Amino acid sequence: MQQIISLLMENKPGALMRVTGLLSQRGYNIESLTVARTLDPTLSRMTITVDVEPQIRAQVIKQMNKLINVLQATDVTEGPAVNRELVLVRVRTIQQSRTAILKEAEIFQARVVDSTVEGFALEATGDPEKLDEFIDVMSSYGDIEVTRSGIVSMSLDNKKLRLSPPVPRGAAEEVLELQGAD
Amino acid sequence: MSNLLSGAKILLNCLGRENVDCIFGYPGGVTLPLYDALYDHPIRHVLVRHEQNAAFAAQGYARATGKVGVCCATSGPGATNLVTGLVDAMMDSIPIVALTGQVSTKLMGSDAFQEADTFGITRSATKHNFLIKNIADLPQAIHEAFYIAASGRPGPVLVDVTKDVFQGQAHYAPVTEIHLPGYKVYSEGHNGQIRRAAQMIWESERPFVYAGGGIIAANASDALRSFVELLDAPAVCTLMGLGAIPSEHPNFISLPGMHGSYAANMAFSNTDLIIALGVRFDDRVTGRLSSFAPHAKVIHVDIDPAEIGKNRHADLPIVGDVKRVIPKLSSELRDLSPAMKEKNSAARQAWWKQIREWKEEHPLRPEISDSEVKPQHLMAEIDRLSGGRAIVASDVGQHQMWAAQLVRFNEPRLWINSGGLGSMGFGLPAAIGAQFARPDKLVFAVVGDGGFQMSIPELATIANHALPIKIVVMNNGYLGMVRQWQELFYNNRLSEVQLTSFPDAEKLAGAYGFTGRTVTSASEMPQALMAAVAEPGPYLLNVKVSPFENVFPMVPAGGALNEMVLRPPQPVEA
Q1: Using an 8 Å Cβ cutoff, are B379 and B406 in contact?
Q2: SS3 B253
Q3: What are the structural domains, with CATH classification, of chain A?
Q4: Residues B234-272: pLDDT tens digits?
Q5: Do the Cβ atoms of B367 and B377 come closer than 8 Å?
Q6: Which one from B127, B163, B297, B323 is the annotated catalytic residue?
Q7: Does domain B191-361 have CATH number 3.10.20.30?
Q8: What is the distance, to the nearest Å, from the Cα of residue B352 to the centroid of all Cα atoms in its chain?
Q9: Is B115 annotated in the active site?
Q10: Where in chain B is the domain with CATH 3.40.50.970?
């Protein structure tokens, strides 16, 4: 079963590599991954979907929490969370099906983002299962091309974020002797 | 205070503020500006002969003192050569900081001369790493690196610095504070859990203390010792924890696990409570996990929350620094009612009696022959000369196991070996680092003929500094541990394990300007070892030992601890 992990991390080069490295090191394939900065531009929020054996899951989350750049890693698979995904679908179709496609799109609350003589480009959001169905339906009208965003998740839990305080380095009254100032 | 300084000088100032007195390194093109700044800087630089040994020497320094060891290498091959030493430090939780040069920012990613993706390559080899492309980030990163390396569960940290940062100029203001909001260090331990642990301990009839490298890392040996004495429980120290309790302490059993003693492994198999302190239930300790300590509940204290429950379920987990948690646990034990303490005293006496019987039944005793030198005999002689006080830096293999079984360590930080990664070639450079850190100590480099030949270049470093290291080569002419497994598990098909053409030790050491000698008989070995120790400078003693000796007891890979093989299979009589 897919595990959904939500991470709050520092927006720094290499931070993404550290998280994905933990998974690739164990040979896990990442099903989807989305990352973007948060309200605080120094931080990013990442959602990863990955298939990890149930008995290893807690260990993987602990290892992620150990990463210096990760402020918090949470398993949101079971917890109260909203999971959404966006899909863009291009469907090539014959003239006679155009109206039917628009009707279907309406049912799925999809929007037309482009329309040509060959067909449509449609945008839909929702939970992944709903999008699977939408894609299924669209493929019945002709050749389709699909780009999915991967899941973005928001936990509805009120988990407190615990951050470490600053650490002093060197004594405050320390008189520093600069070596060979230029 | 602020001053215009080059990046190289800023870096050295930061090292000075971290009380670095010694760097092990090897220069190169990209680190030229750094080495130019080092030229008239008071920090001592030790020129090793291969970057891998810079990392091992930095580890030897760190393991012998607890201070952060520092190594340095240039970009590309210099940095990639450090990698084994970094992974080794990662596995054994040793605090080192590696400084590497990187090609200039504008050349990065262009396959420039001596360019390697050090930041990417060392991601999984370090606790954390930094890539510094901007001189303004340099001081902060250096102080963060030292803090991360030494705090929490220690480990290696690498700082990759581009050449333009070394050469650039900036106003330098000393860093007085660092902030790593996502880096959590758990130290105190949960008081309620500690109280419950004390309760569990007094309720136990057959308590057993399992102490490891975490005790050494936390400098918690004294706390551990008072705890063990208060409880009067038997205790084992893992390969990484030897010396955490003095080997001569009456409560100390031995090393447990694959080559542990009968008593230690039987105790694991029969205890009803494991008190695990700074350990990680490594496969070399537990044997087949599903059969490990089947009757025991587990109290597991570790600073790293990811270790708890990783291999063995902890009935009572405590996340914290053993140095803080153990004294609290001791005081909780003292506070419990006398009735509680008396409750299981009869059962505990029976437990001790049983353990003593196991110890007497199959003690770890050196084999001694009149003619050839038995490797165990060699270790026993090293032990005699050390008296539990010398530093023994070991390589990896059979000699490592015999030394761990038979050499006493009455203080922490005397036994220096590559435990988790098992890196051959570790012993000699680690001895160099240890001797620089502890010039007052007698240092043995106990190595096999295989590992020694991986680190021969460092004989130059030893000669260069006249380090009085006693290099003892346990020479059986084989990659002994691999041969042992081929004998036992691969139908004695000895494939590529014979090491012929070992150099003449006298000539080899002589070529570097110090004394070397080869001994082949049991009668001359003790004298030769004493002469080596008496020599004021370095000494290479090549001891030809019986070639087919194997390490016992042995728990076959995947076997349970109580399925250990105690001695070599005897030929069946017709």
Answers
A1: yes
A2: coil
A3: 2-79 (3.30.70.260), 82-152 (3.30.70.1150)
A4: 999 999 999 999 999 999 999 999 999 999 999 999 999
A5: yes
A6: B163
A7: no
A8: 30
A9: no
A10: 3-172, 375-552
Rounded Cα–Cα distance for residues B461 and B441 (Å)? 18
Looking up tokens 């988790």 gives B420
Within B277-344, where are the H helices?
283-286, 322-335, 338-343
How much is the average pLDDT of B440-449? 98
Tell me if the pTM is above 0.90: yes
Q: What is the pLDDT of residues A66-106, one digit of tens each?
A: 999 999 999 999 889 999 999 999 999 999 999 999 999 99
Tokens of A64: 């992620």
For residue B174, list chain A residues with Cβ-Cβ distance below 8 A. Answer: 170, 174, 176
Report the CATH architecture of B375-552. 3-Layer(aba) Sandwich (3.40)
pLDDT digits (tens, 9 = 90+) for B119-159: 999 999 999 999 999 999 999 999 999 999 999 999 999 99
Q: What is the pLDDT of residues B202-233, one digit of tens each?
A: 999 999 999 999 999 999 999 999 999 999 99
Using CB atoms, pick whichever of A72, A166, A180 lies closest to residue B178: A166
Q: Is B445 helix (H, G, I), strand (E, B) or coil?
A: strand
User: How far is B373 from A51, CA to CA, in rounded Å?
Assistant: 56
B353-387 burial, b if ≥16 CB within 10 A, otherwise e?
ebbeebbeebebebeeeeebbbbbbbbbbbbebbe
Reported as a single tens digit per residue, the pLDDT across B335-351 is 887 777 777 889 999 99
pLDDT digit string, tens, across residues B83-105: 999 999 999 999 999 999 999 99
C-alpha dist (Å) from residue B153 to A122, B156, B415, B532: 51, 10, 19, 38
Distance from CA of A168 to the nearest CA of B (A): 4
Q: Is B114 a catalytic residue?
A: yes
Which residues of chain B make contact with A165, given a CB cutoff of 8 A? 179
Q: Is B129 on the interface with A (CB under 8 A)?
A: yes
Predicted confidence (pLDDT) per residue in B145-203, tens digit: 999 999 999 999 999 999 999 999 999 999 999 999 999 999 999 999 999 999 999 99
Confirm if A149 and A34 have CB atoms less than 8 A apart.
yes
- Contacts of residue B5 in chain A, CB cutoff 8 Å? 178, 181-182
pLDDT at B3: 75
Burial B16-32 (b: 16+ CB within 10 A, else e): bbbebebbbbbbbebbb
In the predicted model, is pLDDT for residue B573 greater than 70? no
Low-confidence ranges of chain A (pLDDT < 50): 171-182
Residue B163 falls in the annotated catalytic set: yes
> Pseudo-torsion of CA B446, B449, B451, B457, nearest 10°?
90
CATH architecture, range B3-172:
3-Layer(aba) Sandwich (3.40)
Residue B518 near residue B507, CB atoms below 8 Å = no
Alpha helices per DSSP H over B409-517? 427-437, 449-454, 459-464, 480-489, 505-512
In angstroms, the separation between the Cα of residue A181 and the nearest Cα of chain B is 6
8 A C-beta contact, residue B316 and residue B165: no
Instruction: Tell me the pLDDT band of B306, cut-offs 50, 70 and 90.
Output: very high
Q: How far is B115 from chain A (nearest CA, A)?
A: 18
Cis peptide before B327 (omega within 30 of 0): no
Cβ neighbours around B344 below 10 Å, total:
18
- DSSP helix/strand/coil, A161: coil
User: Is 80 exceeded by the pLDDT of residue B524?
Assistant: yes
Please give the distance of CA B46 from its chain centroid, rounded to a whole number: 21
